[in-house]
Design a protein that fits this description.
Blueprint (H helix, E strand, L loop, with lengths): L5 E11 L3 H11 L4 H9 L5 H19 L8 E9 L3 E6 L5 E6 L2 E10 L21
Length: about 140
């Protein structure tokens, strides 16, 4: 039997309203694991960023199974990277009528999932129809 080919599927979560440093802490917990293990770990992680990372991984797994025909049991996290997104510049009121600047940081999450194709069954051959029995008169 021929060896199964490994495919990778991507999913992005862009503009997440959390700092990349906090999101990458959560991402490092599950990097390199299977998708099923990663989802269980993120369910029990008490960080706000865990929900966003979990959604991105679940989206990549759904893309792989539904759009690309990969087997859900063989999915592994190939890549899980967090990069900085655009920064929103804001001002905070301070004493004596001043305004102090600060930046609201955002993140981009890239998830690549790799797995093998589902084994497709051969279509069953149709049997030749037998002639119908004649009715009694």
């Amino acid at each position: 039997m021929a060896e199964a080919t490994v495919y990778t599927v991507r999913s992005y979560a862009k503009g997440v309203d959390q700092t990349p440093r906090k999101v990458s802490l959560v991402a490092s917990l599950v990097r390199g694991r299977s998708v099923a293990d990663a989802l269980v770990i993120l369910d029990h992680t008490p960080k706000r960023a865990a929900l966003v990372v979990k959604k991105a991984i679940a989206s990549a797994a759904a893309n792989a199974t539904n759009n690309h025909g990969l087997d859900g049991k063989t999915l592994q996290l190939a890549t899980l990277s967090v990069t900085a997104g655009p920064r929103l510049r804001r001002y905070k009121p301070a004493s004596r009528g001043r305004a102090l600047p600060f930046q609201k940081r955002t993140s981009h999450i890239l998830v690549e999932v790799s797995g093998t194709e589902k084994v497709r069954k051969k279509p069953a051959e149709k049997k030749a129809e037998q002639p119908a029995k004649e009715e009694k008169k």
